[in-house]
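Appendix B, record 7
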Amino acid sequence: MNSLYLSPGEVISAYCAGSEKKFRSSALRLLLLGVLAGAIIAAAAAASNTAVYGISDTWTLRTICALLFPFGLGLVIVTGSELFTGNCMLPVALLDRRGTVGQMLRNWVLVYAGNLLGALLVAVLCVFCGQLDYSSGALAVYTIRVGAAKCALPFGNAFGLGILCNFLVCLGVVAANSAKDTAGRLMGAYLPVCFFVLCGFEHSIANLYYIGAALLAAAVPEYAAQAAEAGVNLSTLTLAGAAANLVPVTLGNLVGGAGLGLLLWYCHIKEGGTAK
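Structure tokens (predicted):
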């Protein structure tokens, strides 16, 4: 009888084999699938914000976000879209002689650009089509507050929280890819992402929405006035502040994802005796 799941070694071998398709894909395909993944993650972030903007208790707020947001990664996996953070494990394909450094960097750049476009598209629609008008603009104030707080994170904190985040996200990718049915794939992706959201770790692609939507909302005079009245510090919410978050978080995500992938490859492929 066939097993209902793949072993860790089989998962990593399948990931390495699948990486060849990622490396050979056209630029347009990678960009479009990146847009789809970015929009999915942004929609999950927008939904989480909408669910909790009126809650002041941190435990309740984080728990609700952790229950909702993880469906984003599940949808990315079942749609076959391209998410930068999941692709941070691509260095294992190089060790398995499936591609080159140039192909890996090309994938990262195109997918990240697509994720950026998708996330910003959702942010633009939410801000300028009235989605943030809930409770007379209270959702807009919350959105601005979240983005400003992320821009204020020190470099070291953002980098470390980025490592922890993508360690868990890539565990979700591994767990999802170990299942052979849709329900198993969704559950495998769900729990590790639930953990990272609950703990408040930093995800670069989600932050493209959180910070992007905050910047756009702060550019709307009515929203900006409400945020200032609510005591939100808008001084950090700038393009420079966005870069101050996204650069270390992205680097941390790379370290967390690549580190997990390399560890699993070494233990289950190289030392496990199933190398190509």
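Remarks on this record: The chain has one domain: 8-270. The CA atoms of residues 52 and 64 lie 7 Å apart.
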